[in-house]
Write a structure and sequence with these properties.
single chain, alpha/beta, 8-stranded parallel sheet, 17% strand, globular
Amino acid sequence: MDEMLLKQNVDRIRGVLEKESAPFGKAPRLIAVTKYLSAEDTLLMHTAGITDIGENRVQVLRDKLPLIGGKFSLHLIGRLQSNKVKYIIKDVSMIHSVDHLSLLEEIDRQAQLHETRMDILLQVNIAGEAQKGGVAPDEVLPLLKTASRLPGVHVRGLMTMMPLGAPEDFIVEKFTAMRTMLDRLRDEAVAHTDMTELSMGMSQDYHLAARCGATMVRVGSALTK
């Protein structure tokens, strides 16, 4: 990876995030998606000022940990099978892709076994894509209330993703709906939850996510190309 290009891209993307998020008063946190990078190239993210990285696959993350452990806040952003929670529960700072009860319960169980409380986001399928993970919008509040009763999980907010190639007006509509949903759920004041985080936006639409109130964006190829 070209280290100078990476640094330039980080600075450029952060500038866009600052500009687009100005009405909200705070730029989204930049999470570098490193699923296609070696451990050595992932470490260059640290040199470029990145503090948070997102991995999609459990095994890839575990393979990198001996070299990158302790350098970043690690986010699990891909679909997570319940039987793999035990492999990452001690190492990640947040799981973004929680979208069903059995996964929620296994995260809770493993967190309690390790005497910790895992920060999670509930993934919402706001675009209604059949092949994508995430709960339907009308199922979010019931799942949130269930999660609030589990001592091993701490719901911090919501996550979503948009279809590749979707029109800009569609993306803005759905991102805006996600921000409205987050604000409404925060107003619900469900006990033992903290609805402050909104993870949305990737390389093709992070600028729109920032404009619509994201607090985290997950950017991969735009950092390295």
